[in-house]
Amino acid sequence: KDWGSWDGDFRALTADIRVGRLEHEALTEGLSGGFFDPDGATAGPDFVGIQPCLPGTQASALTQGPIDAALARGGAQATNAVTDTPYYRFTLETAQGLSLRAMNEAADPYIYLFDATGTLIDENDDYDSLDSRIDITTPLAPGTYCVGMRALSDPDLPVTLSVLPFDATAAVAEQIAVGEAAPPLDGSWPIRAMGVLPPVTVRDLAVAGTRAEWLSFESAAPTVLLIDAVELTDSDPLMILYDAAGTEIAFNDDANDSLDSQLLVRLNPGLYLLALRQYSDASQGVIRLTTERFVRASQ
């Protein structure tokens, strides 16, 4: 999304896409499980990643002794540049779910979780904005684990790695806060009610970073709805539309060769929820939200 000083241009690309079922023979070798090998000595596919964290891999201890005591106090964290500390190791004494987070958007961290043998358990690049997060909802077995990290933008910047106990209720609340899940309609979450939409609405909203502003509206008849989110000051808008049951209907980040966002959807009568947020916490400005409702002319 952020091309920095790149001054090239986008060109049309013709591509062939082949699709098969899981039980079919693989169409290509693929990249799953491959790790970067600059010498080309490792058999199998490569990708521009990191070496797996093996028992002999040098890694910084995240805590002195097992991590369980730190988890009981809320979690453990460390801050270092990726060039200095690409691997962290910790030992878990009791089975439990974990939430791993790597934070510094300017560095754009990418994290990997390995077991004691170097087998990849999970990985993540962008969870919301450019920070990374892995949620292990099924309790990890006791044992030693290793977190590997790389930075897609600047490996010399400090990145804070946190290992926290996984909290399902808090995880859902965090998803709602960033628009990744729809809030319940029981009054427990602040939602701006727009009511039944007139032909046109215009409102300006101050939107603080990736924390979503939630709005609800009703469609009284079958409708085609155009929603625009346009920057007024310091904004990079992003919109996600849900129905009353919490099913995602539409998503848009950038539209019309700009950082503004636009949705064009056909809606049945009913209640809908709209999440409006910034692409990253670097934006803290005002967004102009407009809706235009179109209905079929009477026969």
What is the strand and helix layout of this fold?
Blueprint lengths: L59 E2 L6 H5 L3 E6 L5 E6 L3 E8 L5 E6 L5 E5 L7 E9 L2 E9 L6 E8 L2 H10 L14 E5 L3 E7 L6 E7 L3 E11 L3 E7 L4 E5 L8 E7 L2 E9 L7 E9 L5
Parallel strand pairs: 1-3, 10-12
Antiparallel strand pairs: 2-9, 3-8, 4-7, 4-9, 5-6, 5-8, 11-18, 12-17, 13-16, 13-18, 14-15, 14-17
Task: List the total number of helices.
Answer: 2
Query: In what range is the share of β-strand residues?
Result: 35-45%
Q: What is the CA–CA distance across the termini? A: 46 Å
Give Rg in angstroms.
23 Å
Low-confidence stretches: 1-8
Strand order of the largest sheet: 1-3-8-5-6
- Principal-axes shape call: elongated
Give the overall average pLDDT. Answer: 88
Sequence of secondary-structure elements? EHEEEEEEEEHEEEEEEEEE
The amount of helix comes to under 10%
**What does the main sheet amount to?**
5 strands, mixed
Number of strands: 18
> Which structural class do you get from the secondary structure elements?
mainly beta
